[in-house]
Amino acid sequence: MFERYKGGEKALLVHVFFSHESDIEDLKEFEVLVSSARIEILDIITTSRKSPQIKYFVGEGKAQEIAELVKLHNASVILVNHSLTPTQERNLEKLCECRVVDRTGLILDIFAQRARTHEGKLQVELAQLQYLSTRLVRGWTHLERQKGGIGLRGPGETQLETDRRLIRHRIQVILNRLDKVEKQRALNRQSRLKANLSTVSLVGYTNAGKSTLFNALTNSDVYAANQLFATLDPTLRRIQVEDVGEIVLADTVGFIRHLPHDLVAAFKATLLETKESELILHVIDASNANLYDNIEAVDQVLTEIGADNIPVLLIMNKIDLLDGRQASIDRDENGLPFRVWLSAENKVGLDLLLLALKERLCKQIYNCHIKLPINLISLRSRFYQLNSIVKEIVNEDGSFSLAIRIPLIEWNRLCKQNPDLLYLINDKVEIS
């Protein structure tokens, strides 16, 4: 049912400059999108209009020019950097005798290529089905009538109606499965809440360096590449932050201008990780000349998913591509970090990011002295894991006297697991 690019296809690109859209950056981004789909660009056709033409979107003269270029270059597909109606798509295909794919279709195809997990594939298939349900006429014009006669009597519906019914059924099946995924994610979030674990989500424009930063912070090997939508499937890892304890860091799908609404809806379960975060790290490619438009595009998606009220820490990534820019922290009038400059690729400024996370997430700190008997010696390694031991001495009986500085959340968690800890506190004893 789905036409997926195999790579090596040859395409003509079509872009229309409207009166409110004169920026060339949108076209450059579309070229990167096409390259990400492993398609060879034969030629780029541009035109200017005040509004889309109803029949062909680009105007009849330009449509004829495109048809001639298709034959000249022997192109296999026409890629349009706009959302086309099913009628416009069908009319262009008939005129040019060539497949026509709009921006939404191209993004869906890239997502189909990159999805790896079962959940990611379900989400992409759902978005594809919702997109294709309005475009079925294109493939079934020869079967659009009911048939009669001996041996040809069927269910009383056209092939088109049958396909639409089957697609509606498949969409419902996928929605039911994704509902189960969403419930499982909700349970996981509840478990983290009970464990008092903060969740911090990485968001940002596609190819801003989120996965590279995620790998640098967590020592993971999440796929990261210099291409759009390298990450589709969310990944969660725990990291240790001084005076905060363990937090959960979530790597999410990248955003883009004109992100198809079907995709936002399909990835609802994934994006809920962002919505439920305590802090959002908005990763920005500081070397991109169009960074302010990219920031606005991300903010629009955050508003759309209901995550616009969550505190945000801006991460200005790729400073290695800026002349003379050093890693640093920018603070607001209250001294609170609101922007960090770093290079995830070169691992420069990560210590500053951890410091900013500490200041933004810092909870109440608990200080105490405890005497740890031999039967609870396993707690000593746990304190070391939390980087909470300030000083220690070994007593003659083999026990340990510890000076502890620990986030209150972690202390309460340990006391729940080991109630005897409360009886080991002895602040009268000084540890020299």
UniProtKB/TrEMBL annotation:
Q: Which GO terms describe its cellular component?
A: cytoplasm
Q: Which Pfam families match?
A: GTP-bdg_M, GTP-bdg_N, MMR_HSR1
The chain positions of domain Hflx-type G read: 198-365
Q: Which SUPFAM superfamilies match?
A: EF-G C-terminal domain-like (SSF54980), P-loop containing nucleoside triphosphate hydrolases (SSF52540)
Which molecular function GO terms apply here?
GTP binding; GTPase activity; guanosine tetraphosphate binding; metal ion binding; ribosome binding
Instruction: Name the cofactor(s) required for activity, per the record.
Output: Mg(2+)
Q: Which UniProt keywords apply?
A: Cytoplasm, GTP-binding, Magnesium, Metal-binding, Nucleotide-binding
Q: Where, in this chain's numbering, is Mg(2+) bound? A: S211, T231
Q: What is its main location?
A: cytoplasm
Q: Which InterPro entries match?
A: EFG_III/V, G_HFLX_dom, GTP-bd, GTP-bd_M, GTPase_HflX, GTPase_HflX_N, GTPase_HflX_N_sf, P-loop_NTPase
Q: Which Gene3D superfamilies match?
A: 6.10.250.2860, GTPase HflX, N-terminal domain (3.40.50.11060), P-loop containing nucleotide triphosphate hydrolases (3.40.50.300)
Show the CDD domains listed in the entry. HflX
Please state where this protein is localized.
Cytoplasm
Q: Which domain of life is it from?
A: Bacteria
Q: What residues does GTP bind to?
A: 204-211, 229-233, 251-254, 317-320
The record's HAMAP family line, in alphabetical order, gives: GTPase_HflX
Subunit-structure text: Monomer. Associates with the 50S ribosomal subunit.
- Which family is this protein grouped under? Belongs to the TRAFAC class OBG-HflX-like GTPase superfamily. HflX GTPase family.
Q: Which NCBIfam families match?
A: GTP_HflX, PRK11058.1
Summarizing the function annotation, the protein's role is:
GTPase that associates with the 50S ribosomal subunit and may have a role during protein synthesis or ribosome biogenesis.
By what name is this protein known?
GTPase HflX
